[in-house]
Amino acid sequence: MIATTSYSTSAKGKPMKINDLKTRMLLGLAAAVLPASLITTPALAAEWSPSKPVRFIVGFPPGGATDLVARIMQPKMSALLDKQVVVDNRPGANGTISLQIISRAEPDGQTIGMGHIGGLVISPVIQKVPYDPFKDFTYVGMLVTLQNILIVHPSVPAKNMAEFLAHAKAQQGRLNYASSGIGSPGHLSGVLLEMLTKVSLNHIPYKGGGPAITDLIAGHVPSFFAVISTAVPHVQSGKVRAIAVTGNKRAEALPDTPTVAETGVKGYLSLNWYGMVAPANTPAAIINRLNRDIVSTLKDPDVVKQLNARGIDAAPSTAAEYRAFAESERKRWLPVIKAANIQTN
Predict the structure, then answer these.
(1) Is the per-residue pLDDT at 119 higher than 90?
(2) pLDDT for the residue numbered 59
(3) Which of helix, strand or coil describes residue 341?
(4) Does residue 321 lie within any of the structural domains?
């Protein structure tokens, strides 16, 4: 049988297919009867949602600052995404192993991870890393900023920065300070202090902040540029003494501890920061959803309270702002790293 098509005439006198006319009538009826929320066009189609638990890769062991931030955010993120967010610790090589895993994952939103100053800014300058920090990732958004803090063993004859620098100067470069590793933010904090004060210190790199704080408390090393979240409980208990924080404002958790700049070291600023990254070529719809949910998470009063208690500040941003910030941090620290000739062994 040969199919035929009938025609009618539109209000303007132009022929119209009967099939088209019926379609329009049905659509009009649907619009009158169905809720508007059920009638969608391709532009208003359902947004991306994860199809299974989301893997949140962290480049340091449990108990560290990056892990702490991820686990504080985890419950709220899981609720917003309606899928469990699973924190996956992949420590090693100052966080570069975890970033390599993220860079090689499928760009489907199911694998995200922690991007940080160590892995995105410092390590690519001082050693060969298996990824390009700006080509192999899609930046999702900034998460938090946190200061480092100079802390000393109670036996050190210094209760403020002036006394610490005087003691260091008397030691003629022999006063040791610990950091969580070569090229770590704590290491750079110490290098910057040396550059701006012309006082020499002796760097002792540890394999993480945990071993360093243990040795400081035991008196095996006299001072430590620590991530503030690691130091707060021990400062509050009196096991160590705080000299100064490295940011541009005092930490809420330690309001009596001044900034390094406040103590008279002009131009001093050394911030640690964490953000969220995804594999390169992750679609914009996925990035937009993830960004929206991390911003909501970091504005949640309970999340903010938990972060502040450990000296950490929520700092949500757009994806573009996070990438631009990381690029500016690279430009700021590159001269310091080169001037100090920081290299891995």
Answers:
(1) yes
(2) 92
(3) coil
(4) yes
Contact 253, 334 (CB under 8 A): no
CA distance 62 to 183: 21
Q: Mean per-residue pLDDT for 92-96?
A: 87
One domain for residues 252 and 162 = yes
**Rounded Cα distance, 31 and 114, in Å:** 46
Look at residue 199 and tell me whether its pLDDT is greater than 60: yes
Strands 176-179 and 111-116: unpaired
Residue 111's DSSP bridge partners are 55
The secondary structure of residue 259, as a DSSP letter, is B
What does the pLDDT average to over 277-288? 98
At CA 115, angle to CA 111 and CA 120, rounded to 5? 125
- Identify the domain containing residue 107 by its residue range: 54-145+272-340
What is the mean pLDDT of the segment spanning 233-243?
Answer: 97
Q: Is 76 strand, coil or helix?
A: helix
Helix (H, G, I), strand (E, B) or coil at 64: coil
Looking at the structure, tell me whether residues 196 and 299 fall in a common domain.
no
The reply to whether 73 and 208 lie within a common domain is no
Report how far residue 219's alpha carbon sits from residue 216's, in angstroms, rounded to the nearest whole number.
5
Is the same domain home to 307 and 245? no
| Judgement on whether residues 74 and 140 belong to the same structural domain of the protein | yes
Q: In whole angstroms, what is the distance from residue 342 CA to residue 345 CA?
A: 10
Asked, for residue 311, whether it belongs to a domain, the answer is yes
How many domains, in total, are found in the chain?
Answer: 2
Q: Token digits for 183?
A: 């090229």
- pTM for the model: 0.80
For residue range 174-186, list pLDDT tens digits in order: 999 999 888 889 9
- Distance, CA of 39 to chain centre: 39
